[in-house]
Design brief:
The protein is an alpha/beta fold. The chain is built from 12 helices and 7 strands. Strand 2, helix 6 and strand 3 form a beta-alpha-beta unit. Helix 3 runs parallel beside helix 7 and helix 5 runs parallel beside helix 11.
Amino acid sequence: MAVLRMTRRRPTSLRTSVEDVAASKRAPQTPQTQSAAFRLAFADDEFMTSEDTRGVRFQLEYLKPEFCLRERGINSTVVLFGGARIPAPGKPAWAAKNEMQKKNLEAASRYYDEARRFAQLASFTSKAMGFSDYVVVTGGGPGVMEAGNRGAADVGAPSIGLNIVLPHEQAPNLYVTPELSFNFHYFATRKIHFLMRAKAVAVFPGGFGTLDEFFETLTLIQTGRMDRVPLLLFGAEFWSKVINFEALAEAGTIAPDDPKLFNIVDTAEEGWDIVRQFYNLPEIDEVLRGD
């Protein structure tokens, strides 16, 4: 079983919390020791999941992935957002509720291929940098997320999965690097980890979750709360139907130049070329020759 290693513990003459948790479990069974009040606060599940400790849980959900990513030496990421319902080419549209959805979702499988290829391109560059930069990160689930983690695995690169607990069961896809597979309760802390290291954000067709992630990123860039990074929308036909950006600009609810904050692309190569030029990265064939 893999053991999560945080920052190496400094030598100390004081007893550790791990030692005291073990010792408390060996205490004699009395009415006092069996009382909830006697439990060590940080080892008391009822206390740690109470309403009053919500702030502590926020902090812990931020810290755990942060420690792991720092220890792994991951400085920057390439984020892939997109629909969980989009199947791999040749696979059935498991989420379709009618024939029209089945047809459209199966046709959308081309985005699975583009996401996989985009992740491969990012991971080739990441490999040349010792897997410290441009590491692929997804929501860890199926569909486009699986394609992203799969593309990284194709070239022997690690990738991150940021899952979240949902009412229906959803295990991480099998392509996420196990040591970089995280699970969240709070959407807020998960969103922080999606974007705090992001050097590029690629958004593929998806539903409410994908739209939320796109507009969250776009709003942060628009308001200057996040540095300008390549923000890519994959699928001109899809996005032109789903969102009328020109109507927003004409209505005056966004600035005329706000649609320039992102690029609409159709292929992985087109998207990665925007990222490459933005950061003056070498072309992939140059990266491969230097491998």
